[in-house]
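Hi Y.,

Following your request, here is the sequence exactly as I used it, all 424 residues.
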Amino acid sequence: MRLIQAVIPEGKKEVIIDLLKERGIDYVISPETSQRKYSDVLFFPIPKEGVEEVLDELRDAGLEKNGFTIVTKAEAIVAEEFEKLKERYEESEEADESKLARQELKTSAENLAPPSPTYYLLLVAASIIATAGILMDNAAIVVGSMVIAPLIGPAMSSCVGTVINDEELFYDGIKQQALGVLLVIGSSVAFTRLALGVLLPRQFELLSLNQITNQLNPGFLSLVVALGSGLAGAFSLTAGVNSALVGVMISVALLPPAAATGIGVSIANVRIASGAAILLAINLISINLAGTFTLWFQGYEPGRWYEQEGAEKTTKSRLFVLIVLLLIVATFLALVTWETRREARKAAKLEEIARNQVTNLGGNITSFEAERTGLFFEKIKSVSIQFTASSYPEEFGRKIKSKMEGWLGRSIGLKLSYLQSVPN
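Below is the corresponding structure, written out as tokens. Let me know if you'd prefer a different format.
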């Protein structure tokens, strides 16, 4: 339920009253005393699903040309006429009670992003916390950092700005996203250097951390997470519900890879920096694509008819660019995922070959590890095997290496660790 308050320009009172009566909307009018070019102040309640339609009609009648209109949420409206009006909208097939009015959508998107100093300070804090959580390999701390990262606001602002043809809102959203991501990466670089120089041991191995390795090889499922985050963000915005939890989901897709990129840059590790940066780019594209498409699919457009055609072309062109970028990224992800699965099958086959050879020797494998090399399309570089047996023939190492290389079709390194077992 909404309560509309507006000032009526001189000469427009009768037209507006006739429109409200025709709609069956109860209203209150009081004289306007500021001695400006307004005659009265108008108040009337309206169900949420009727706000956009009625305000468009009132604007066409001249309501917003020289004055202002305020839309506020009403906790309860006790009036028989309003109940009848509410029933009419509920029975209408065109009305969508879950959809926020266009006039409220822009304000909601703007309110999701705090003022610039607060926004950037929160991002610095979130970045430092996320970086610390990654370096500690503590998932709970990383999740906590996502709660305070206000990344949903800029993402939704750019999406809303596109569909309602508000270029200022669109570019503000894009600018805040770009600056926010760069700020997170920069904060992560600075904090990582401090941590590695003062707080952590010199031989600290970053690639042993799960929170780092999770960001290195973006798979196809990363795309699903980011698309789902953008879709959920847009739906939460249009439904007028609390977007805090959805904001956490968007932060899940953006904050950890941005922090991991900063960690990789700070230690000049190309593998960490590039892997996390690609995941970050994937998620940014997917969130903006899903958010824009969701709002466009729900029918949001500018209120003025002469802006609608231009907005439609702009929205479709931006969606096209995002889709092309997404297809490029999706193709890359599909290839990475396919190659990763293929190498995993190869590693399993090499382990089977090794296990058969050790079993024929009367022993047991206690550990098998395939070491891979490569930035994204990793190849098996060497194999390490630990096994126990009662004896170790001199030719055993060459024999098992020959079997593996014969199946694989190329040479690999082999490291054997043998422990003699004592027969019972």
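The longest strand covers residues 379-389.

Thanks again,
Q.
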